[in-house]
Amino acid sequence: MNRREVIVGASALGLMPAMGAFGQEAGASLQSLVPAWNAWKAAYLQPDGRIVDVASGGASHSESQGYGLYLAVLFRDVEAFRLIYSWTEANLALRTDGLLAWRWLPDATPNVPDMNNASDGDVFYAWALLMGADLFDLPQCRGRAGVIVKAVARLCLPPVPNDSGRRLLAPGVEGFVRPEGIIYNPSYWMPKLMSDLAVAFNEPSLQRAVDDGLARLGEMADAGLAPDWMMATPDGWTAAPEGFSSNTGYEAMRVPVYLCLSGQASHPMVRRYRTAYEAAGLDAGTPTVFDGKTGEVLERSPDIGYAALAGLASCTGAGGAKLPIPLFTTDQPYYPATLHLFVLIAQIQGFPQCQPI
After folding, report:
1. Domain tally for the chain?
2. Which of 80, 271, 347, 348 sits 20 to 30 Å CA-CA off 36?
3. Enclosing domain of residue 94
4. pTM beyond 0.90
């Protein structure tokens, strides 16, 4: 099941240099993708700053707003940054703890019927605010980022049951820490951004969650691909409860691109995905849902943003790409298009031998 339906209530690649030099260096390195960024904005960003996910009924999410603000920083687009920031603050910054409500619905009254947050959206949004504060001379954005980071550290980093030294990034404040264990989503966890925020705001617990997440993904890779959802219990890791997908699907497909964007292309979990994609092939469409343990393909899609994910994983192999990274197009929904743009960013900075075709 998709996250949007079930949520309830550093830098080895050089993608992100030292924060003081971020704007000049990162922006210059991504100039070839500016046309793709402009196309993305034209397709998914409304004039008021709302990023629309048509496939989810025209909804907007803290994830989509966080992704958009992140991209605006990477492309040094102050106009897009201001629009996205303003809309998000007016429409999703409704919680008393400073975190964002996770979803805005155009046809609902009120537009935000569920005030729960989504920690991945909060992380992307806070990182972009931190970087944008200096890049665009908006000092208030740093303070806003700090509020979010402190709230994430206080409310969304529970200890792993029976291993209290380890920390998890919980998917949200409400509904995921249960008497039987903690529901966990490996794709909510973006190592590079969390590390930057931990340093900037002196939150060692956030860095601990990064380190523990990398270790946990390494353990998972011994048995298979990362699942969309799982549960940490006092007796160990188990499948997530009913209603949460234990397959490797639309959630977990983000794991390898996040690792690549964080300088972790050699991580064992990236190798797992590379093997799975190459074994499955793309002739009948790109695999979008796997049985994480057996590698059996359960679902495929023609959207080329998903093919780009497969191509990026293939690029990380010693021999270079076996699966192509396709050129960017907005002839696909918001979600695969956004992942497609992430892939192209990672390719430019880390895998120049894998040119999109």
Report:
1. 1
2. 271
3. 3-247
4. yes
